[in-house]
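Researcher: Here's a chain I'd like modeled. Treat it as a single chain, no partners, no ligands.
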Amino acid sequence: MLQTKQDYLNCLAMNPQEGKKELQILLQSRFSWTNTQVLESADTAGLVIDDTHRIIGSEDDEFYYQEYIEDSTAKLFRIGFTVNEVEELLNES
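Model: Modeled as a single isolated chain. Structure tokens:
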């Protein structure tokens, strides 16, 4: 399992195809669903519902309005990469 920035760079050097696959996963996993509002019902009136906004229900009959946002604590950032760095590595031949 890749745990550090150097692990990813080593994987990329030893097996470029696998390394790029892992970097792509790292890049995509920087987003997460975050609760932005507690709702009384699943009524969507006045709310944006699209690829980055949704309403989910919980087991305790509460509804949450969520937004799919970049998580500043995602593994990508914790191990020292920037989005631009990873994108450049993915675009190299």
